Amino acid sequence: MMRPIAVSCGEPAGIGPEIAAGAWAALRDTVPILWIGDPAHLPEGTPWQAVASADQAKTAAATALPVLAQDFGAPRRPGTPDPAHAPHVIAAIEAAVRLVDSGDCAALCTAPIHKQALIDGAGFAYPGHTEFLAHLGGADRAVMMLASDALRVVPATIHIPLAEVPQALSARGLTDTILITHAALIRDFGIPAPRMAVAGLNPHAGEGGKIGREEIEMITPVLDALRAEGLDIAGPLSADTMFHGAARARYDVAIAMYHDQALIPIKTLAFDEGVNVTLGLPFIRTSPDHGTAFDIAGTGTANPASMIAALRMAARMAEARHGR
């Protein structure tokens, strides 16, 4: 059996504990996991077993959710984050990273965090989960991919106002995004010769400069330089014709210029099964493609499908990278 996937608990007031329990129930015979958090926060009736190591998790996973237990010192109140939990949420992430760094766990899967609670309770100084993981892993730059069986997308810019996107895009940044993505497709997805499609920024990819010049002045020169190095890249392409079935069959990943250009198509095609993958880290990290869902936390209606997909993808990536 493969090494377990380390699962950090995320924000206790959200649906993280519920989807972890649901994912374990669905995957216990195929993907062993090690959940790091306070077992008192798990849904009532969840079979769980405290373990002291990842090795113990492999044997325990068949009959109970293996838990590397932490005492958060306060109960979970679904829908209402408690800043007192913040240091423990951060410690769970750090513990999970240590487990994957040491090789005791095959990969990391993170449940959603609530940034404001981490700021209020622990002075969290990072823009988000991804940047914190890049810091812990010593990575200069991390890249966000959203992935499903139907589509993989990578936005070159992420959580910034649309008006700031043209200034945020740069030749160096776009080059790094494409190279990190290319390397990850080979190493972690087992695609020896990745085919990449790159969207333009403007409608119709600028239409020869009539609807914007970013394609002419920056995007095309970057793509030409990378093609000269042997990368298989199409683009810049008009984004409105990149995501129908026949177009998707021609590439392994789509590089988009901004958040919604990338996320609207994948959330349309695979809303419940999309997986957030962080590329460029020294370890494998996946996460469900949704937030804390405070509005349904504790109601028993949380759908674990994206967590299940994230764990399955982490396992496949670990097999591609490590062979187990």
Automatic annotation (TrEMBL):
GO terms for cellular component: cytoplasm
Cofactor, free-text remark: Binds 1 divalent metal cation per subunit. Can use ions such as Zn(2+), Mg(2+) or Co(2+).
Highest taxon of the lineage: Bacteria
Pfam families: PdxA
Subcellular location, record wording: Cytoplasm
Gene3D superfamilies linked: Isopropylmalate Dehydrogenase
Annotated catalysed reactions: 4-(phosphooxy)-L-threonine + NAD(+) = 3-amino-2-oxopropyl phosphate + CO2 + NADH
One GO BP: pyridoxine biosynthetic process
Pathway terms, separated by semicolons: Cofactor biosynthesis; pyridoxine 5'-phosphate biosynthesis; pyridoxine 5'-phosphate from D-erythrose 4-phosphate: step 4/5
Family label: Belongs to the PdxA family.
Protein name: 4-hydroxythreonine-4-phosphate dehydrogenase
Source organism (scientific name): Salibaculum griseiflavum
Lineage, broadest ranks: Bacteria, Pseudomonadati, Pseudomonadota, Alphaproteobacteria, Rhodobacterales
Gene name of the record: pdxA
